[in-house]
Amino acid sequence: MPLADRWEEISRLRRMRAVSLLEGTTLLLLLCVAVPLKHLVGISAATSVMGPFHGLAFVLYVWMLIQTVAGGGWSRTETLRMLLLAFIPFGAFVNERTLARRQILLADLI
Questions:
Q1: Which among 15, 71, 23, 97 has a CA at the least distance from the CA of 105?
Q2: CB within 8 Å of 10: residues ≥ 6 apart
Q3: Environment class of residue 41 by beta-carbon count within 10 Å: exposed (0-12), middle (13-18) or buried (19+)?
Q4: Domain positions in the chain
Q5: Each residue's pLDDT tens digit in the chain (110 positions)?
Q6: Residue 89: helix, strand or coil by DSSP?
């Protein structure tokens, strides 16, 4: 892989890691803060605000996943795992660690 392509892949991985953390954090805030506030305290505004914010973060995550995978070098299994883990609390954080390892491997090749 040419050096310029490696740098581009590292840049995509860095962006994907950031979006993965954003998506995972918004999911946890929605499930652990907004939903209990709505059902236990009766503050429905919490889910009205956090729900769409998480929705945007999820759409951004899927968009970034498409861009990252389109760069090449990803198997269907890896792609499917990254998509499915986005639906599980803490799954996005597992994805972030996997992306970090891949980023480190690419950086070591430079």
A1: 97
A2: 103, 106, 107
A3: exposed
A4: 3-109
A5: 677 788 899 999 999 999 999 999 999 999 999 999 999 999 999 999 999 999 999 999 999 999 999 988 889 999 999 999 989 989 999 999 999 999 999 888 76
A6: coil
Q: How many other β-carbons are positioned within 10 Å of the β-carbon of residue 23?
A: 26
CB 29 within 8 A of CB 49: no
Tokens of 44: 């429905």
**What are the tokens at 10?**
């590292």
Q: What is the pTM of this model?
A: 0.89
**Planar angle of CA 93, 53, 95, nearest 5 degrees:** 15
